[in-house]
Amino acid sequence: MSKKAKTTPKEELPSGTLLKDIKDTVWEVKNIIGSGGFGYVYCGIKHGSRSKIEYAIKTENMESGPLFVERMFYIKNVKEQDVKIWKTEKKLKELPLPKFYGFGSTVYNNNQYRFIVIEKFDKDLEEFLKTVSNSLLLGAVINIVRQIIDALEFIHSRGYVHWDIKSQNIFIGKYPRQNHVFLGDFGMVTKYKTENLLPDKKCANNGTLNYIALDGHVGMYTRRGDLESLMYNGLEWLKLKLPWTGQALSKTIKSKNQMKETILAAGPEEKIHDFVKVPHCYFKTMKIIYNLNPAEKPDYALLKNLLKQYKLEKL
Prior knowledge:
Blueprint: E1 18-20, E2 26-35, E3 40-46, E4 55-61, H1 66-77, H2 80-90, E5 100-108, E6 111-119, H3 125-129, H4 134-157, E7 160-161, E8 170-172, E9 181-183, E10 190-191, H5 214-217, H6 223-237, H7 249-265, H8 280-290, H9 300-307
Antiparallel strand pairs: 1-2, 2-3, 3-4, 4-6, 5-6, 7-10, 8-9
């Protein structure tokens, strides 16, 4: 159910290909490290530099779109000075978004491609969670969810929703930032409305079916929707199966509504069926998110503080 690009690149760029960005910085393509509906991701280096720092170079055909959306989001919203001010105001050591280094276009074999250069990570969240022991899993997941709330607060403050939260789009920092995660892939970021917010069938069901928020199923881009999607992911990261996994669209929507009704009706200390090992504070957080009005600004600090209470609970 993910929104996809019209086409993927017609062919791979050979190792050694040089790409000049709009600031005349030259980047050298090495090997492919990933691919998606938009195109390919390459490991790259700054050409002519003695530095061993590696970068991620994302490419797509000019007639495609997600990478253009991602590029514009970075250019408009992730300016170095703005990030510095935000981190100071929010008392953050890191803003959980990848660093952006440049963009441009190139022609190879008569085909035109756009590219962006961003921070490269060695592993995504999906890979990382496989290495976490069961005894440490809950603490790790709560920490990750709280950091992604920080990322979403920044994205939302710029007037956008991310709308594609999943483990493949979250990355683990390299030393000395190995305790930090970073939310990437902004190919589906969308402006949200705070007035005249109505369902739009043309925008419905964009994203990965398992994690689409209820607002997403009716075509409303909302801040609460991003947070709801994050909380679905968190349950999976705890190695739990979402009740609608593998179901068709209609059954998935019905099951998500049933979960919402169950959580809203549950008492303060009542366990949710099938999720008995999940702390109460997790579902209290979901209840707050469910109770938000569609255009309401979430209290991100409240959500983070509530999740932190898992340490006080006995499971």
